[in-house]
Amino acid sequence: MSFDPRSIPVDPSATAALARNGLEYRLLDPADQPAMRAWAEAETRGFHHPRPREIDLDHDVAVAGERRVHGVYDRTAAHPEVPVATVDGWPTGLSVPGGRSVDAWAVSAVTVSPTHRRRGIARALMEGELANARNAGAALAMLTATEATIYGRYGYAPAARAATITVDRRRTHWIGPDAPGRVHFVDPTSLREVAPGIARRAVARTPGEIDRWPGIIDRALGLVNPDGDRARALRTVRYDDEHGQPQGFASFRVTREPDEPGVLEFDFLSAATDDAERALWRFLVEQDFVTAVRGRLRSVDEPLPWLLEDPRAVTISDVGDHLWVRVLDPVDALSARRYGLPGSLELRVADPLGHARGRFRLTVDDRGRAEVERLDEGAAAASGPSLQLGVQELGAVYLGGVRPSVLSRAGRIVETAPRSLAFADRLFEAERTPHLSIWF
Ligand SMILES: CC(C)(COP(=O)(O)OP(=O)(O)OC[C@H]1O[C@@H](n2cnc3c(N)ncnc32)[C@H](O)[C@@H]1OP(=O)(O)O)[C@@H](O)C(=O)NCCC(=O)NCCS
Fold first, then answer.
1. Judgement on whether residues 318 and 352 belong to the same structural domain of the protein
2. Which of 68, 135, 385, 415 has the fewest CB atoms lying closer than 10 Å?
3. pLDDT, tens digit, for every residue of 198-221?
4. How far is the CA of 249 from the centre of ligand 1 (A)?
């Protein structure tokens, strides 16, 4: 989807809902710098972050300038130029099983000022984003959530998990293969040239990852505020394969007390190949003068324990729902991914907000490609496998992160023909556990 996300008309329902509360729903013009800066400050406050430095604010405004940014304004507030609620959204790809990408709409920066909470502002914004997503032609909307109780009511469900991986350095003895290439320390500025390409290939091979925007790469490499303490603590490495081609990178820091061994922490390890993934993990876990290595937002299914003599050196914690998906167009969403086996499945989808409601038939060929058709409500019942489910359950199983039979055991999916669940479990299976390694 390459178009200007600001070209979509402003959602009249959100405008009307907020106007009933005496509030104005406004689409911001990125050229209006004072408004954009006030919006970015309000968003920072909404997430309880410290007041941003000028350099960080410049970055936030530049990133938001590429998106569709809405603010909600209260003319009677002490500072009416500061929005009482914020949200932004943008069209972007989501990697799906089979190595393709589906057109999606990312939603972020959802905040409502504590002075204006619990009067329906978030609901107006969230429904407005679903309208924007549909108008943009997105098959689904997606977000990451601060709390797991907020977004189910709009049809979102957890679809890809992430976890913290901690490795006990003293028990690290590598038994995996030696990488054919090399890890180099490189300065972040030079890494900036190759990192987007590596990240693009890493995203493509992992269902649940979303396309990276340039600003997040700069943040990963400490280039937003290079003189800040956090950026100065970062070290950056690149893995080049046996032909000298860059295939992976990581940024990490070691935190330590004087004269004590430290803890190596990293948020970004991006690998376009298995060799790169192994080599970067090995580099990180074999550091001397550290007691532990900790990676955040890693896959719940890392190969790391299989690369160490002592798999108990690896602890997986903070396993969380991370990527939330809200299907809007089941035909486009379901036909974008690949499936585990050939056959046909009918889905009857309920959706209180209407977007994804209906009956759909997937017919999967022996290469895993699906043709998806919308059926008439009154069409004869399917003779083959069929399931009844809500839009949240559809989002949860979409990337293969949870089996339909587990949701059936939870009473959330109903099998309407014999053996449909066993078939659907194998159908929706992904070749790689879905995973999202960033916040957005
Ligand atoms: C989460 C937040 C945006 C909600 O804003 P709000 O305007 O108060 O929400 P609304 O009044 O529109 O409430 C809509 C519904 O969500 C519920 N809800 C709102 N916040 C909730 C929360 N934190 N936990 C559980 N339910 C919540 C409301 O009870 C209401 O339920 P209902 O539809 O069943 O009546 C706001 O509390 C906030 O800014 N929090 C801090 C920043 C944050 O966490 N943002 C989320 C980023 S992922």
1. no
2. 135
3. 999 999 999 999 999 999 999 999
4. 37
